Amino acid sequence: MNTDLRLAVDWTACTAHGLCAELLPERITLDEWGYPLVEGTPLPPEAVRRAKRAAADCPVLALKLQ
Amino acid sequence: MTTIPQPAGAVLHDALPRLLPRTPLDLAAHTAQYGPRAGTQGLSAMLAEAGLTGRGGAAFPVHRKLEAVAAAAGRSGRTPVAVANGCEGEPASHKDATLLRLAPHLVLDGLLTAAEAIGARTAHLAVEQGSGLLPGLRAALAERGGDRVELTEVPRRFLSGESSALTGYLSGGSGLPRFPQPPTRERGVGGAPTLVQNVETLAQLALVSRYGPGWFRTAGTAAEPGSMLCTVHTAGTAPRVFEASTGTPLRRLFGPLPSPVQAVLVGGYHGSWLPAAALDRRLAAADLGVPLGAGVLAALPADRCGLVETARVLRYLALESAGQCGPCLNGLPRIAAAFADLASPLRAVGSPRLLDDLARWSGLVEGRGVCHHPDGTVRLVRSALTVFAAEASAHQVGYCTGSNPAPLLPVPSDPAPEGLR
Predict the structure, then answer these.
(1) Which residues in chain B have their CB less than 8 angstroms from residue A32's CB?
(2) First to last CA, chain A
(3) How far is CA B403 from CA B96, B246, B264, B387, in A?
(4) Domain boundaries, chain B
(5) Which domain of life is it from (chain A) (predicted)?
(6) Cβ contact (<8 Å) for A12 and B370?
């Protein structure tokens, strides 16, 4: 049973640091310009902690859990 | 069938046009035509039964937006704000300006009734800089004594009418789209729950509130009821604004066409190209299989190149990107440049990967911005590559079937928007 939390990107804030893809490689990859390609389906419970960490560690706080 | 209560002195329209008079109506003529502004009792239920949807392009059910704003106001304890959106950023659309010129009081009625219904005490009406609409609107407001509406001109940009851009501008901000959480219905102008409705939607609302849903549904199809304003482009004539029943065959809307048609653009620059057979379909999203957007329709003559026409529009759309979101900022100029190459047989011949690049970049920008600018742009690209597939193949072997270079769709000659120069 997945949670109802999903990853989202505030595209106006994201500047393609790419840290999120390192912290959460199973859900985030980078496109050819360095911007995240995010798996937008609900997170499984075991991924929530690391997703929160990735969101908190985004240098511009563009990665959101909602 | 229930009897529709008739405002004193009102003439109930059975035929079109309902909201687009031939000459501008001052308050006296407006009141003689439609009767006094209706109250808000049962408004949401009437709008739901009428099936009125937003006429700004997204076709969202109006009653649901009203209810959502009222609910957000209840939850937050903040007084909501109502905004009439007359920012017709799309160069091919003229219906909102035409409506505001001819029937300003119908829009103001709708705005004030909607504002009252959600409990708003502030109402805004926003139009574009350079539209020349403000003096007429000021005069209309002056006729109405106690009614207070804030009139604002917003920068002339394709995206100025996007709801978060508009509420941001009205709050003293930059007027660019923002991350849609929380949505404007919860935090809009000054952080208050905000109802943003297109001006035509409000004019329709003003009529539904007077005459009821049964009357509204005497025009249009059962699934997409009522009438809508359209801007119709045919080669060699100035664009025309009509009010049409949904369900009207497109051919009747275009009228006699001076030359054979190869394709029809439905829904404007965020819309879709359809093959000429669409002329025999009806004006309804369900019939055409594509969104109607804000009602821009254009018939591309057989002697034009659809790729050249699309490339001009894509260049404009790329320049109108607010430049805030990485995928849009990177993708749209690449898409526009690749499409310009495809539109030129000389360049298309030596570039076998153009179609692959366009498909990949389209996928990379879609759904990856805070507003729908990339999504709408991709819709146009994909429909062009489908409808003009044979032309693209011709270009890739070095020739173009177009013989007439005259442009059909209007694109501002200097499209670099303010703030991006």
Answers:
(1) 364
(2) 17
(3) 34, 34, 18, 18
(4) 27-216, 227-301, 306-396
(5) Bacteria
(6) yes
